[in-house]
Structure formats: C-alpha cells, structure tokens
Known about the structure:
Blueprint: H1 2-38, H2 41-100
Helix pairs in contact: 1-2
Amino acid sequence: xxxxxxxxxxxxxxxxxxxxxxxxxxxxxxxxxxxxxxxxxxxxxxxxxxxxxxxxxxxxxxxxxxxxxxxxxxxxxxxxxxxxxxxxxxxxxxxxxxxxx
Length: 101
C-alpha cells in the first residue's frame, strides 16, 4: 500500500513539474512576442536574448524536477526492496516455527 502511495505521489509530482515548465516556456514566448511588436532591431535582439534565457531557465528547472523525481523513485524502490526482504524474513521465520511444532 505504501509503495503504491509513494509511486502515485511521484507520478503526480512529475505531471506538475512538466506543467510548470510548459507555463514558463509559454510566458517566455509571449514576452518575446510583446517585445517584437514594439521594437526596432535592438529591442528585437533583446527579446530574443530574453526568450533564450527564459527557455534555458525553464529547461534547467525541468531537469532539476526530473532529477528530484528520479531520486524519489529510487528511494521508493529501495524502500520497497527492504520491505520485501523483511516480509521474506518474517515468512521464513513463521515457516521455521510451524515446522518446529
């Protein structure tokens, strides 16, 4: 049960992270378009630079979010493996007790 809750929360986190990065990219693009409508060539270059910076930030944030999610998945998997090992040991002990009776 705990395993499924952990995995479910990770999936929700990944979905939220991808939505955030998409909003960041959309915002960067719209700012770039706004600057294009008002500008001579110099402002066009500035808008292009800002757009690239915002996209780099969004990309970096997405990478960080994915790294965090990957770490959470690894942690959940290792915890699940420990739980399996404990359950196996308990089952083995019960089997030994039943054999001794």
